[in-house]
Amino acid sequence: MAMTSHEPARVHDGHGGGREPLLVRAALALEHNDALDPAVKALEPVAEALVASEPARRALHGRVLGHALHPLLTDLPIGAWTSATILDLTGSSREAASRLVGVGLLAAVPTAVTGWAEWATTEGGAKRVGVAHAAANSVALGLYTGSWLARRRGHHGLGVAIGLAAGVVVGAGGFLGSHLSLARKVSTHNAAFAPEPPAHA
Question: Which residues make Cβ contacts (< 8 Å) with residue 140, sequence separation at least 6?
Fold first, then answer.
């Protein structure tokens, strides 16, 4: 399985001129922030241990699919938590919202594991952004855990408030994940999916 990972580079949208959007500048700043390197070095052995064996690597990288498993799994926790937020904001079933938060917590475990396995294949600026991505998701996971506990203890309003804060953090983490997969094309994939040559008119 091949892997595509680009070093930090300024990518233009074709419009030229003007100042890049705030989020673009934030992503580029993370890519060049060497203050994240100690965290990268500390976490590398953990990620590499996940993919140390061939069977584990094949499973966690989604080789049966031909491309990374992690992006597919992210739909599960994010979908459950987003659904819970909709129920909260519309005043619908409290019990259903609580269960959805719990489902998201359970789904976040395999999602995080496959994410670390994917991170093990990256390098340079992508590794730094990956650390920030994981940090945001870890904070969100902690908040959603607090939200679920508050709901189960009958403190529904507190649970909703914590859940809304968690949703904001998940959004930040999701942006960084999208930056890696869409802007930097970081993903394990089968060599058969190599970029096709441009079509000629």
Answer: 166, 167, 169, 170, 173
